[in-house]
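User: quick one
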Amino acid sequence: MRFVQAERFDDWRETARELLCAEVPPAEVHWSAESDSLLFADELAPAAPKTIHVPPQFVALAKDVAFHRDSRRWEILYRLLWRLTHGERQLLEISTDDDVHAATQMQKAVKRDEHKMHAFVRFRRVLEGENESYVAWHRPDHLIVRLAAPFFARRFSAMQWSILTPDESVHWDGHELRYSPGVPATMAPQQDALDELWRTYYAHIFNPARVNVAQMKKEMPVRHWATLPEAQLIPELIAQAESRVRTMIDTREGFATSAQQFIPAQYDLSSLAAAAHNCTACDLHCHATQTVFGRGPATARIVLVGEQPGNQEDQQGQPFVGPAGQLLEETLTQAGLQRSELYLTNVVKHFKFILRGKRRLHQKPGSREIAACQPWLAAELKVLQPELLVCLGSTAAQAIFGRGFRLTSDRGKLITTQFAPRTLATWHPAAILRMTNEIRQQEMREQLVRDLTISAAMLA
Amino acid sequence: MEVRDKLAILADAAKYDASCASSGAKQTRAGSKLGTTEGMGICHSYTPDGRCVSLLKILLTNFCIYDCQYCVNRVSSDTPRARFTVDEVVSLTIEFYKRNYIEGLFLSSGIIQNSDYTMEQLIAVAKTLRTQQAFGGYIHLKTIPNASPLLLTEAGRWADRLSVNIELPTAGDLLQLAPEKKREQITDAMQGIAETITETKSEEQAGLHPPRFAPAGQSTQMIVGATDSPDADILQTATELYDKHQLRRVYYSAYSPIPHADARLPGKSPPLVREHRLYQADWLMRYYGFDTQELIVSPDRNLSLELDPKLAWALANRQQFPIDVNRAPRELLLRVPGFGVRNVEKMLSVRRHHQLRTEDLRKLRVAWNRARAFVITADHNPALADLDKLDLARRTQPRQRQLLLFEAAESARSGEV
Ligand code: SF4
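Assistant: Done. Structure below.
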């Protein structure tokens, strides 16, 4: 029996080569790691050096296996080497062979451990005067510090960092890797201001509706938790998961009320109007006087939709009764239409304003309010089934045609939509009133009359 | 609002996003001082749902002007809202990265003002990371629907991966639930990205040095179960996306129901296992030579929820079995339930040296329970007699049924079955 020792791959390679040249069979060699070896290797009778040919995969395999903690690694590797050079050149292709299997299992374990080290090392920032460095403490399963270190050197090339482990430590100064003995965990910094932010992220990216602790533990073994700042949250997150899901459901977290839930199951125009008076789906109802619902006969073939009620509409409870309503009425007459035959309504049913002294100044509704109120308009249109739908202004046009609609380029075009076979958008009378350029104002007014005339003619 | 509060809201908003892997960009950007894109697929942590945490996955903002019915961030939702500045995202990414918490950034956003404006903000984050911080880590940008093609080209310069969400399985589904998004606009954007990727590659091969463009390719995500489109349509769409637009990955995300939502939506979510089955079928199409038509064996044009798609196919095509593991070519071995690609490669190599016996297959860690009734080995295989038994489905089923419910998350990450 020969007693030999190796700590790293290079030691093993040298010794194995000598043994092989001397034709010493595996059964006659006892391998041990340097640290636990009490015996000295026998001097081998110098044999004629010869070149040893092994498949390149073997060298790769052996290099990985060398990082395994199991002391049997050297003897398995030597046995493989012996068999490869003694008539079994194809041995590595037989993955079911016991030695091949044992070595590849070790390789797998090492690779996995390396991968986990790349993943679970957590640096903490250390400031000493002007000098900034990052320090981590990690406990790998195998002796992989030298295997894993180059990855960190590439990834954090411009940083100064150290990774401490119980077996061996490694340091990077921006130029080269330096190794030093292992140290206990207490030697590493215990905190970093960023840990708290990272825990916040961790807690919120977790979906409590899908708890799977077994899967988590399989991928992130509990023995690594001590060095992961986020892991201290795990028990709490698991404990709260069930109740968090329940409150998510109970409070309907994330889902706004929309007017949808105020709409009766069966409805006509008058029951809709009545229901809308109690709508609280968005905050507009808090300040406005009342809901201003659509007005007009249920038999109307044309529906006009504006943006929202104004000051006077809010007080009287009827759409289009203020200055804009008057202008609308004039243009309707010019176009040969009668207001009493039409149904007039708005996208948003409550007045939105800001107080300036005693005056209530009109404000454009926000997308949140438009979305909340939309179900009312949808329900009105469903009952009315108009042949022609006229959108007054861009808010109405975008509510019907979608966000991309541009009034300036698509005004006056007849388009089929889900709400009516003919739908068109034109100026809102209020926009005409606000126009300061008189020539332009006149032009817009004529365009409004023309759009209304064309559409009226379509129905005749 | 403090960065920490914003982070809470904007991570919450991103947690339903299925795509999370950092993969495919092998070469690290030249001149980087911090970060590499080697070591693809490193999971830096796992949350108690068993999912991998690889990237800082956040939204720039969850404000949105759109109202897509299946989305938590839609304008009509009253979820709490927040918005990061470009610099806040840049510094979070850098600081997290330096502590080795993450592989990089996955940035998506609700739409603010308009598509182009929003896209420009996302680009600003990626560009700042690359040019001012010399950041070489992984960046995945989710493009904004209807953003201009020029902006997509710009985004691809700085990002490793781009994604355009297909959103729903069919054009009809889109019309129904997200009328503001158009199928053609979505596929045109994908096509544009695919063409630029191809151009960039061919220029590189010609020895030129074109600017980088999305070296990790593009991916997409599809919501499953919000409409009643069957799996056959879903897989058909996926096939088109892989073939026509050269996508790297299609992610499937089970729709979760929204109380008091629009009446157009179903009140129940599809079982998670459906998501898992779709990943399995997707994988079989890409790596096992199956096509959509073959995998859909039931008349309702859905995959079976009880059986994995390969086993379901094998049971419906028993006349093709048993298969001799010592003779059958690679393509046929791949069709045996319980055999994976790696198992098959090993079998092919071992059988050149000796005949495969049942014991060898076990050592190769094939799913023997599923495979045994379908294969001939060099020794006697008693389970072969089960092939003609009617209850074969039951005999071959994995015992731990419950586990299946959770495998979807893992298959989304690795894409593997
Ligand atoms: S504006 Fe519309 S949604 Fe808001 S409370 Fe009034 S009626 Fe309801």
